[in-house]
Specification:
Length: 183
């Protein structure tokens, strides 16, 4: 089953989550286990739970905790889009160079049926509210822990940052996005 998780245009704004939003994120990650505990304890448990889920998928536990805190705080995670060299995606990216990043909306779609990656998260873009077109996936390293976040019930928002390549010496195009967890 595929479900679109969230959409967000590239406004370029990134504000920290308020305390209530952090608590809501903590409750979603912890579920019933977080009831009755203090608010600060819930946030710490949510970070520890998320860090343990992503540990082993990145460098070490310390790096996992840093990523978990960044996600809980609502920090934007910059990323390239993987898989942009397949099909007609290069032509689509070439067309996207005509538009400002603010005119491009990004949709992140959890793709549980993907034969190559059980944690796959597809990236689709649309310009000025047109029909969304899939341009690739979050890189496997990022999708490994973002999939856990999405599966826990949190929303992910993404902002389009631009098209790369296509200039002198670069025959292929790429895409840059920023991913943010929302409460």
């Amino acid at each position: 089953m595929k479900a679109i998780i969230s959409t967000n245009s590239g406004t370029g704004t990134n504000t920290a989550l308020c305390r209530e939003e952090k608590l809501a994120i903590g409750r979603r990650i912890l579920g019933e286990a977080g009831k009755g505990a203090s608010p600060i304890s819930n946030i710490r448990k949510a970070v520890a739970s998320l860090a343990n889920k992503i540990n082993g998928k990145i460098k070490n536990l310390s790096a996992a905790f840093k990523k978990a805190w960044a996600v809980i705080k609502g920090a934007a995670v910059p990323s390239k889009v993987a898989g942009v060299s397949f099909g007609n995606i290069q032509a689509a990216l070439r067309r996207l160079t005509r538009y400002s990043p603010e005119a491009v909306s990004v949709e992140l779609e959890r793709d549980r049926d993907n034969a190559h990656d059980a944690n796959a998260i597809a990236v689709a873009v649309s310009v000025n509210s047109s029909r969304a077109y899939r341009i690739g996936f979050l890189p496997r390293e990022l999708a490994q822990y973002m999939a856990k976040i999405m599966d826990s019930g949190m929303r992910l928002a993404a902002a389009f940052k631009g098209v790369t390549g296509g200039s002198a010496g670069f025959d292929t195009y790429g895409a840059l996005i920023e991913v943010t967890a929302k409460g």
